[in-house]
Structures are given as structure tokens and as C-alpha cells.
Amino acid sequence: MRTAICPGSFDPITLGHLNIIERAAQIFDRVVVCVAANTAKTAPMFTVEEKVEMVRRVIAPYPNVTVEVNSGLLAEFARRYEGSVLIKGLRAASDFDYEFQMDLINKRINPELETMFLTADQRYTFLSSSIVREMAHYGGELSGLVPEEIVAFIEEKAKTRRG
Ligand code: PNS
Questions:
Q1: Which of 4, 75, 103, 151 could form an SS bridge with 115, CB 3.0 to 4.6 Å?
Q2: By the 8 A CB rule, do 21 and 33 touch?
Q3: Is 101's C-beta closer than 6 angstroms to any atom of ligand 1?
Q4: Cα-flanking dihedrals φ and ψ of residue 74, to 5°?
């Protein structure tokens, strides 16, 4: 069984993420969405539990997609799934610079681990979790940025944070 691992901070999951997950689910037997910590991002909007809850709601229609949490090195996590590959979405050349570096460090840790890249759907090349967080903070329209199933969840969280 070939497993794709789609890792990310998912703070929150966006339609761009979902598009990559959906496409991976058509290519691979199984997709594991890995909610991971990015130490460069120090003040997440959502707790890990909230991120997982949102991912869970969004992937519910896909029978071969599951969600896991990982708080360690991604390349070590990938060892749990024999022959797995990492899937990353690329929106622009600047994404590639970062992902190329990540692939090299991941291979240093786990030389058998490959990363495959899917280019972002052009509808979502502008989209990022940080754009969604900013829109949510200012009460902007979230439809078209995140899956409908989690729009209210994000709006509610933003309202609580604004106080
Ligand atoms: O959505 P993001 O923030 O771009 O995802 C980045 C993430 C979480 C996939 C990356 O930071 C990661 O793999 N973190 C886990 C720790 C790790 O393995 N880091 C690479 C070796 S230093």
C-alpha cells in the first residue's frame, strides 16, 4: 500500500490544502494528513486539538484519508508508514526554496524518504493560512478560502480572540 503524508501546520486548513489532499488521495492508496508543529510559527491561532477537529470535518468524505498529530521530526514520523512519501504543495518559486531545504534535511534524517511536489491549483496560489487568520481577525468573508464545514468554527474562534 502506497501512503502519502501531507504535513503542515494547518492553522487552519485551507481550500488550497484540501485541493492538494484530494489530488493525493486520487494518486495514492492512502493519505495521512499530519498536523505538525512548525517551531518558526510561535503564536498559532488554533490549538492542536482544534486543528485536528477542523481537518477531521473536512476529510470526512474521503474514505482513504486520515489525520494524525506529530510533535517530533517529520522524517521519523514517516517511518511508521512503509514506503511512504511526503506530499507538498507549491504555490510559487519561493515555496520551492524552502521545500528544497526541507527535503534535504529530511533525507539526512531518513535517506529513503522522498518528497513529491504538486503545484497549487491556480485558484489558490494566493491563499495561505496566514491570509485566512488575518481575514478572520478583521471579520472578512471566509467562504472561498476555507471549506464551508469550518467557516463558522473559525469565525467563532476569531470572535472569542477579539474579546
Ligand atoms: O504548514 P507549514 O508550517 O509550512 O508546515 C511545515 C511543517 C510543519 C511540515 C514543518 O515545519 C515540519 O516538518 N515540522 C516538523 C519538524 C521537522 O521535521 N522539521 C524538519 C527538520 S529540521
A1: 103
A2: yes
A3: no
A4: -65, -40
Helix 151-162, helix 129-137: angle, nearest 10: 60
Residue pLDDT, tens place only, 78-119: 999 999 999 999 999 889 999 999 999 999 999 999 999 999
Confirm if 129 and 147 have CB atoms less than 8 A apart.
no
Burial class (CB in 10 A: 0-12, 13-18, 19+), 48: middle
Q: How many residues does the chain have?
A: 163
Catalytic-labelled residue, pool 2, 41, 108, 161: 41
Q: Is 91 labeled as catalytic in the residue annotation?
A: yes
Protein residue whose Cα sits closest to atom 1 of ligand 1: 8
Helices then strands (H, E): number in the chain?
Answer: 6, 5
Query: Is the pTM value of this prediction over 0.85?
Result: yes
Quickly count: other Cβ atoms within 10 Å of residue 115's Cβ: 20
Atom of ligand 1 nearest to the CA of 7: 9
Indicate the top mutation candidate among 14, 32, 74, 97 to test ligand 1's pocket, ranked by most ligand atoms within 8 A of CB.
74
Amino acid found at 89: G
